């Protein structure tokens, strides 16, 4: 098996993964009212410029999934490059049509290349973690069907919890009234959101203050360690709040020294809805 991987920009892959020759990416974008486009990236400098522009908007910009034409071009390039198997993993079908579009395109190439399309039911660090696992399993010689089974199992058993620190973007997006957003910001109310079993972002709990959110994350990690005897991995994602997240991760590591903990940045497409300083935590059950 000579495998290639297709993902989309909301995985916010590390530079090491992006440079791999068999990893291909299709991109989402953010479109403002005036027609200007912000490309999906978690580069800090571009993020700062993006948030400054976002502050001037009375309503949220829209986010667009990758063009079908780009997906066709990507699959054609993979075949031309000599790969015989594709693993595609995309942003949750509960919040984007990217997975459905990718599966539709790949189904048209069944006579030319084997393909396995995985709905992450999540975003960001969850996608990156599963991609890393797929690469490892391929290197270990695991068969394609088993890799697909494992990746799908992880996608359906992982948990992502999101904390929105500033409620303004939820109000601009129509998910919260302006009055409620102002009151919530004053009272330091922190909606703790999560991806449900359908891959949609819904309310998990309402908590007061960041500290209480972080305490709750510790409780959720403790529960997961008891639920998954093979172990778990924890990853944090953030929208321009590196220093705070590093402190959270250090506290978590001190309490759970045997758990692998990593940090990555959120990009413009996800941050459009969560706002600056939003933070997320992934709990990923391991497969031994």
UniProtKB/TrEMBL annotation:
Alphabetized Pfam families for the sequence: DegV
Tagged with keyword Secreted: no
PROSITE patterns in alphabetical order: DEGV
One Gene Ontology molecular-function label: lipid binding
UniProt KW keywords: Lipid-binding
Secretion signal span: none
Entry function: May bind long-chain fatty acids, such as palmitate, and may play a role in lipid transport or fatty acid metabolism.
Name by which UniProt lists this protein: DegV family protein
Lineage: Bacteria, Bacillati, Bacillota, Bacilli, Lactobacillales
């Amino acid at each position: 098996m000579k495998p290639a991987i297709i993902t989309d920009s909301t995985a916010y892959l590390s530079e090491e993964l992006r440079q791999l020759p068999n990893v291909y990416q299709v991109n989402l974008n953010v479109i403002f009212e005036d027609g200007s486009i912000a490309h999906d990236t978690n580069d800090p400098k571009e993020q700062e410029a993006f948030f400054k522009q976002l502050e001037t908007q009375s309503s949220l910009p829209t986010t667009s999934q990758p063009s079908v034409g780009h997906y066709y071009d990507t699959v054609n390039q993979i075949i031309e490059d000599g790969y015989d198997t594709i693993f595609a993993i995309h942003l949750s079908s509960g919040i984007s049509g990217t997975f459905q579009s990718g599966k539709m395109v790949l189904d048209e190439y069944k006579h030319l290349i084997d393909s396995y399309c995985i709905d992450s039911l999540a975003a960001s660090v969850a996608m990156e973690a599963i991609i890393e696992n797929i690469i490892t399993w391929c290197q270990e010689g695991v068969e394609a069907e088993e890799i697909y089974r494992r990746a799908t199992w992880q996608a359906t058993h992982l948990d992502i919890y999101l904390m929105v620190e500033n409620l303004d973007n939820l109000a601009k997006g129509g998910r919260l009234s302006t009055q409620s957003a102002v009151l919530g910001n004053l009272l330091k109310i922190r909606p703790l959101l999560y991806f449900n079993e359908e891959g949609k972002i819904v309310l998990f709990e309402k908590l007061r203050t960041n500290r209480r959110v972080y305490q709750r994350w510790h409780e959720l990690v403790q529960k997961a360690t008891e639920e998954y005897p093979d172990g778990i991995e924890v990853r944090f994602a953030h929208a321009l709040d590196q220093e705070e997240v590093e402190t959270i991760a250090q506290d978590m590591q001190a309490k759970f020294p045997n758990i692998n903990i990593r940090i990555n940045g959120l990009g413009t497409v996800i941050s459009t809805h969560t706002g600056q300083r939003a933070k997320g935590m992934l709990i990923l059950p391991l497969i031994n």
